[in-house]
Amino acid sequence: MTQTTPQSQSHWLAPDELEAARQRMPILYVDAIPVRADSHGVVTSVGLLLRATGEGKITRALVSGRVLYHERVRSALLRHLEKDLGPLALPRIPISPQPFTIAEYFPTPGVTQYHDPRQHAVSLAYVVAVEGDCEPQQDALELNWFSPIEARQESVLAEMGGGQGALLLQGLAYVGA
Amino acid sequence: MTQTTPQSQSHWLAPDELEAARQRMPILYVDAIPVRADSHGVVTSVGLLLRATGEGKITRALVSGRVLYHERVRSALLRHLEKDLGPLALPRIPISPQPFTIAEYFPTPGVTQYHDPRQHAVSLAYVVAVEGDCEPQQDALELNWFSPIEARQESVLAEMGGGQGALLLQGLAYVGA
Amino acid sequence: MTQTTPQSQSHWLAPDELEAARQRMPILYVDAIPVRADSHGVVTSVGLLLRATGEGKITRALVSGRVLYHERVRSALLRHLEKDLGPLALPRIPISPQPFTIAEYFPTPGVTQYHDPRQHAVSLAYVVAVEGDCEPQQDALELNWFSPIEARQESVLAEMGGGQGALLLQGLAYVGA
Amino acid sequence: MTQTTPQSQSHWLAPDELEAARQRMPILYVDAIPVRADSHGVVTSVGLLLRATGEGKITRALVSGRVLYHERVRSALLRHLEKDLGPLALPRIPISPQPFTIAEYFPTPGVTQYHDPRQHAVSLAYVVAVEGDCEPQQDALELNWFSPIEARQESVLAEMGGGQGALLLQGLAYVGA
């Protein structure tokens, strides 16, 4: 986006402004569970990102990120999927804006199943079929595909941070897998 | 399907048996609203079939049909979409089995918005993106694509029978169009 | 209902007719997960019926039953809840007919997570808050309330037949519990 | 809430900070459509607030408001319903956090159906049954109940601002009314 669009950078938050806002109001996020589906719409596998955290810990993660000022939720979903899975992932953005659930990440642990020490984030959660070639981008080390049965194993869920294991289980329940 | 599968024809209903069942129990249906969507998942057009009824009346219709014995709802949805739109339609069957609503067609008019003089049918309703080439099949005369704004015009809705105009409006509401 | 209504008993199925239909077409059911919720809508407990099966086995079960000819899904839901939980249960029937999922019970095990040796049943599944006094009726021995955490324990889920443990987990995921 | 809670006022936004944030990031809202429902869950009437805008114009409105820092969406929903309908309204907060849709209010008209000149707000929309006595509070002049048929009349929808008429229609579609 360029300076000439109404969404120009001057309308976005500088890092310190974002930091301040994070202590004062809920921040809007999207979470996406990337899946492969067959011609009948049956989910055959689930994609999880492998990331190294700042502290050098390895975690598995969903595709996740902020919705920007003057950005549609659909566009944020597409942007974060392409950012994490690469430009050839061909995500099929859901035609309904209804999320399968909302995940409320609180800075205080235990208020909900979800926790984010940096902020109070409210995330609209979607399951998104991807049809192209996925290549982990940026800070993701790998993208691994799991069958729905593998994905719900305790060992996999335990590697997910911030309560995203619970969100993954909710997404799998939603698709009937 | 062949005689060797558990779903062999002997398990299905003969015409007179179907007729009898229709007077005695609700019959399970699926309704599909075929749509075109852009890369952001925004619905750009809606497909409606043009049919001639037995009485020579012209009506517009959604893709609709029975779920058979031992058939999954997903498979029924795919079968009816391919039957009405042709084998190259490439419908993206929804990954969640949750319908956006159910339509209860009663033989008695006025119980619900939906009416079917032949039977009490309960239909699971889905909006389905189709990505391939659609060719109306069988008893459909044409398949016409409407923008969401055109599709909700009174003149279009009035051409739909059995309350399907109301179902179309519900589907358009569901996708936020 | 009396003989004078259009839904008179003569329109329903005699036992042998029901038996025949069950071998020929999917039968429409509703499944309800009865819950208690607090003033914020947070589910605090889940009610499960304790039943003795014909073979003398003890199982836990959801509220479940057929939709009759010319009966609305809402009415079937209310009828089965009052039949199983008693006339003072005060169920709050959901205002939207959209089920949180559909459960496809196949006579052949393994086609889906759900199994019913008697028939192919397709069930519309709802979570229903009940606000009154519940008394198990008819063939139910007891009604037991579990916290959401207790309800998802392996020992509880293992006592549920036909895949209803999976449906219970989906319902708990749907309410975010 | 008092100074001793983690949600103390110091964590909230001062008016000028809120003003600044509104130009920089999407603000999280909830919208609620208050309804009366019968024992079968059928919506019998819809409640709309009558408000005078700053410019002295009269508009009809849904219950609507911000989600605060460290506040659950359920709590925000309850707070705004009690604020607008009074403490005896007895709203039945939905047991699932899944909104029936999201409404994206943009400061630029025409991006979506929804428009808010003050800000980019993303609202989670719910239909909420209220069972008690409703009294309009604060800046609402009246609360009027409409049958679902009356509520969708062009004359009523035209009195609603910011695209809330479209949201009302979506909510009515969701409950099958």
Task: Please render the helix and strand layout as text.
Four copies of one chain form a homotetramer.
Chain A: H1 15-22, E1 27-37, E2 43-52, E3 58-61, E4 63-66, H2 73-85, E5 91-92, E6 101-106, E7 114-115, E8 121-130, E9 140-146, H3 148-151, H4 154-157, H5 164-174
Parallel strand pairs in A: 1-8, 6-7
Antiparallel strand pairs in A: 1-2, 1-4, 2-3, 2-9, 5-8, 6-8
Provide a concise account of the structure shown.
The structure is a homotetramer of 177-residue chains. By secondary structure, chain A is an alpha+beta fold.
Search tags:
homotetramer; alpha+beta; disordered N terminus; 5 helices; 177 residues
Structure description:
Chain A has 177 residues and is of the alpha+beta class. The first copy, chain A, has helices spanning 15-22, 73-85, 148-151, 154-157, 164-174; strands at 27-37, 43-52, 58-61, 63-66, 91-92, 101-106, 114-115, 121-130, 140-146. In chain A, strands 1, 2, 3, 4, 5, 6, 7, 8 and 9 form a 9-stranded mixed β-sheet that branches. Chains in contact: A-B, A-C, A-D, B-C, B-D, C-D. The A-D interface holds A 6, 11-13, 17, 20-21, 23-28, 67-73, 96-102, 104, 106-108, 111-112, 120, 122, 124 and D 6, 11-13, 17, 20-21, 23-28, 67-73, 96-102, 104, 106-108, 111-112, 120, 122, 124.
